[in-house]
Amino acid sequence: MTYVIAQPCVDIKDRACVTECPVDCIYEGERTLYINPSECVDCHACEPVCPVEAIFYEDDLPQRWAHYRAINAEYFEQPAEWQGDPSVTDGDHRLIAELPLQSSQKKAISVFPIRKEEAADADLWFPS
After folding, report:
1. Could you give the CA distance from residue 96 to residue 11 in angstroms, rounded to a whole number?
2. How far is it, in rounded angstroms, from Cα 19 to Cα 86?
3. How far is it, in rounded angstroms, from Cα 103 to Cα 9?
4. 89: β partners
5. What is the rounded CA–CA span in Å between residue 66 and residue 62?
6. Degrees (nearest 5) of the Cα angle 38, 55, 35?
7. CA-to-CA distance for 66 and 30, rounded, in angstroms?
8. CA-based nearest residue to 7, from 25, 34, 27, 26
9. CB 65 within 8 A of CB 7
């Protein structure tokens, strides 16, 4: 089993999942990210950090995005196997390349105004 990146990632490519992945199995296309199913170790690190909730465990993939399981797998196939009809064009799977431009739907992420180092040095009992 593996994790799959679905349509909410298209034209967003936040890359938080790439940072969290301990085995570097997430690759970047022109318009979306792809998880290599032969490299994924099912660690669950990528799913909770995705701000657009585009990453699903293979068995939990919503029906409307079920074809993304094949899209992720086909993205990593060798060109010799395509026999003149490539599934990957211009850095993306053919079906991704054909999608209309997607709008940004990132969840709001809290931004802290101070760095961790400053917060650690703050004395909450005796404010300045």
Report:
1. 10
2. 29
3. 10
4. 92
5. 6
6. 25
7. 21
8. 34
9. yes
> Nearest to residue 88, comparing CAs of 72, 100, 102?
72
pLDDT in tens, 79-92: 544 444 444 444 88
Pairing state between β 3-5 and 55-57: antiparallel
Round to whole Å and give the CA distance between 20 and 83: 35
Q: Is 90 left (phi over 0), alpha (psi -120 to 50) or beta?
A: left
The token duo for 24 is: 């570097």
Least Cα distance to 71 among 39, 49, 48, 97 occurs for 97
- The structure tokens 């599934």 sit at 87
Which helix (H) or strand (E) is 38 found in, with range? Answer: none
Q: Inform me whether the pLDDT recorded for 110 exceeds 70.
A: no
Predicted TM-score (pTM) of the model is: 0.72
